[in-house]
Amino acid sequence: QVQLVESGGGLVQAGGSLRLSCAASGRTFSSYAMGWFRQAPGKEREFVAAINWTAFTDYAASVKGRFTLSKDIAKNAVYLQMNSLKPEDTAVYYCAAGRYSIDYTDYDYWGQGTQVTVSS
Fold first, then answer.
1. Which of 89, 97, 91 is nearest to 23 (CA)?
2. pLDDT class for 28, splitting at 50, 70, 90?
3. Is 75 helix (H, G, I), strand (E, B) or coil?
């Protein structure tokens, strides 16, 4: 059993930055891949970024070069640094734990989500 809690969302102007955090409890992060997904109103949940147990990372094309995913195993936490934010980044962002994948259905554990709103 893994519990995940996201934080760090908020309202930011286009071009600004936010840092999202995902704190985990239960099982250590070393045994799981961690993913970030987002869901905008009326849209399907989409892949943002993932990091596996070796710290290999992958990013959606829409965020590559702007977002950076990192992992702190000692703290059981992952972070998503989001720079050069665009209005189309507006969504609820979810942290997930499971096997390394870009498909949200492959993840077993989910946080409650944190709202990110980017104004134009």
1. 97
2. low
3. coil
